[in-house]
Amino acid sequence: MDNKVSVTKCERYSEVQAAVEKAVDMLGGIEKFIKKGDKVVIKPNLVSKKKPDEAVTTNPDFLHAVIVMAEKAGGDVTIAESPGGPYNAAALKGVYSVCGVNEAIKGTNAKLNFDTSFTEVHFPEGKTVKSIPIINPILDVDVIISLPKLKTHAMTSYTGAVKNLFGTIPGTYKAELHFRLNERKSFCSMLVDLHECVKPTLSIMDAVWGMEGNGPTAGQNRYIGLVMASANAHALDMAACHLIDYTPEEVDTVYEAVKRGLVAKNADGLEILGEAIEPLVIKDFIKPESHFNLLKLISLPASLNAWLTNALASKPKINYSECIRCGECAMCCPPKAIDMSSGKPQIDEKKCIKCFCCQELCPKGAVKIHRPILNRFMVKFIK
Ligand code: SF4
Ligand code: SF4
Predict the structure, then answer these.
(1) How far is the CA of 172 from the centre of ligand 1 (A)?
(2) Domains of the chain
(3) What contacts 165, CB < 8 A, 6 or more positions away?
(4) What is the mean pLDDT of the chain?
(5) Nearest CA residue ID for atom 6, ligand 1
């Protein structure tokens, strides 16, 4: 089991080339991962059309640095992503433009992917899914480099290296998986299956600026000042979670990987190269409102569970003063729980599976996370 994670300081994106190369050098150098003439696909996090300074997507300077490094090693680079929402050439064009990817490839030979075909990949080893639709540019390449951004996530608490691969699933199939696996643990188990199926060669995390609070798109920017890398995405996530003060048990993708023996049991078992994480741990990194699950802290008779789960769970709530009535939330909602027939979005709480896709993809940040007062009070009291 590879538990090596390299950690390098990077004060600002103008210094990211040296930081990225240093992080990969500590893992053995880019030549260990890319041979001359290799087809390389780089998968950044381009979840939605957000400008680089919003700290939602992989920073374009960061992406540029990785392209330059991969090309120096002789790689033939393509950038590919299936962002949130529809997966078509027009959507990709918009995302590449707004997220700064067009600038990131300037001065390089990297190509942008506009091929929206995909293949149903059979994965009999999967624990939760045995077959996964994956976008074609990710398949049939020699090297996959994943560039996650360190952020919180309303549904999964944290999004990093493993969750970044959800962007290898074509548009509407993401909603289908959310709908089918509407419970967080099974959804995260699917993400671990997906990771094992795609198996990126290398994951390099943009942790220069991350996001805290109600991420992955509507939280607050948080300066972290690091670049982290690993050939094992689970180890990278374990290290990043430790950095922002999550235990492995608090993040289902990490805990599932621990249970499957894909990573060390906790951060003590990681082999950290470069900066020690312990002195850098950010104790006050703000977690999403939806992270606080009372039912994890107390045990109750099964009969009370369903009622309490609903009564205490955080829910999406629309702030109509920020809403522009675009209907994106209704389009992305897996169980079709959002009705636009009155001209404004209305959420049917009975249908809502609390996946927070609406919160993630609302272009105006108008979908908030409502955490019941009873939940706030009891979590504080029990803690
Ligand atoms: S996506 Fe956001 S802005 Fe658009 S209708 Fe839904 S809540 Fe309103
Ligand atoms: S309303 Fe929002 S949180 Fe609820 S199911 Fe739809 S997209 Fe998911």
Answers:
(1) 18
(2) 4-280 (3.40.50.11440), 292-382 (3.30.70.20)
(3) 43, 146, 191, 194, 195, 198, 200, 233
(4) 93
(5) 329
